[in-house]
Amino acid sequence: TTEQQRVINDATASYQSKLNVINVASGNTEVYKNPTLMRPGSVFNQQTGAPLQSFAPQVSSVTFDTGQPGIDVFFEDKQFPAVLGGTVKDIDYQVNADGSGYGHYVVIESTDPSTGEKVDVLYSHFGNRPNLQLNQTINQGQIIGIQGGSGSVQSADGTISSIDFLAPAPQGSKSMTPYSNYESLRNSIASQLQNN
To answer: Which pTM was predicted?
Structure first.
C-alpha cells in the first residue's frame, strides 16, 4: 500500500541520514576534505541545509567569550554551517596591523526565530574566502565554508568557527553593534549544536 511504502521510504531516509553522520564522524569519507563529494540527501549537503542538531556529532566545543555577542564552535570535520537561514549581505577579509581580526568572513542577514526580528550573523575565520555571492539565499544548516584560522584564532589546531549576532546594519558598514537579544539567541543555537 501507499502507507507501507511511505514508512519504508522514511526508514530508509532516516538510516541513510544516520549513516552519513557516522561516515563523516568516523573519517570514513573524504567529504570533509572535498565538499563536492557530498551525496544528495546527506545531512551535510552544501545546498539544502540541515537541522543544527544533525551537526552535534561533529561539535567538540562551544565557547562563549565575555564581551562578544556570539559563540566559537569547533567542528571536527571543519564544515562550517549557517546557524540561521538568510541572505548573504557581506563577504570580506579583515585583519588589523597587529594580526587581530576576523580574517575571511561572511555576514548573513537572518531572522531571530524567537522574536521575528532581523539579525546580522557574522561568520568568521574561514580558511579561505567562502564560495558565496552577495544576495545569495542561504538555508539553516547549509555549509557556507571551511572552518579555518584566518585572522586572530586561538585553538588547539589553529582553526575555529566564530559566530556573532549583530544588530542589522547597512551592507558594507562593518558595524559590530551587538544584537539586542544575542544572549538568548546564542544560548538557543549553542543548545541545538550540542543537541541539548
So the answer is: 0.75
